[in-house]
Amino acid sequence: MFVAEWKAFGTGRCMLKLSLPKNSGGSLTVLCLGAHCDDIEIGCGGTLLHLKETLPGVKFYWVVFSASGPRGQEAKKAAELFTAGCEREIALKDYRDGFLPYDGSAVKGFFEEMKGQVNPDLIFTHWSGDAHQDHRLISELTWNTFRNHLILEYEIPKYDGDLGRPGMFVPLEPEVYKKKVSYIMDAFQSQHTKRWFQSETFLSLMRLRGMECNSPSDYAEAFYCRKMVL
């Protein structure tokens, strides 16, 4: 990763920022893991759009573990929106929503298959401290399987009130965070009846994280990074 410095605002120095290399001798391979339809998009959709715009030739491996029936079709549409114009592979599995820990052996087997198929530069997965048992399992198996990779854990707002204190931030330009929310609301029509599934929910979390990292646009996504090499 490269180290660069924010442009100065007023007097004094600003926090250094880390950036992925724009030309590492090949395209960047990104593995996106989500327990359910819409998890990836809510958790890191803005960052994925940012990577797509700033890193030429980025390749996406997109995996949703519980994506059967009509919701699976929504997940496919969303994945195509967020990865449009990029090389991609989309895998939609049909493990039972809410029962992933009880199907742990089968899910673990699929992780082992992935390990032989993709060697990603960057992985997005669930936060290990998430209150949802499906999310925690996917996070645990990510770390068990990919032991020498850069892994960023994203957050999902929910009724449980389990938001924590992530320490890595990706500031987002207005056109990026607005596009993220637009894609989510367009793709997941079946979720519009849920009171929490609103544009304001997604924007408010990004606004909070933007405040915490002093984002120039006031908006950002945040991640937990357990291990990083400089």
Describe the SSE topology.
Layout: E1 2-5, E2 16-19, E3 29-36, H1 39-54, E4 59-66, H2 69-82, E5 87-92, H3 104-117, E6 122-126, H4 133-145, E7 150-154, E8 168-171, H5 174-187, H6 199-212, E9 220-224
Helix pairs in contact: 1-5, 2-5, 3-4, 5-6
Descriptive account of the structure:
This protein is of the alpha/beta class. It is about 35% helix and about 20% strand. It contains 6 helices and 9 strands, in the order βββαβαβαβαββααβ. It has helices at about 40-55, 70-80, 105-115, 135-145, 175-185, 200-210; strands spanning about 1-5, 15-20, 30-35, 60-65, 85-90, 120-125, 150-155, 170, 220-225. The protein has a 7-stranded mixed β-sheet, with helices on both faces. Strands 1-2 form a two-stranded antiparallel sheet. Helix 1 packs across helix 5 and helix 2 (about 70-80) runs antiparallel to helix 5.
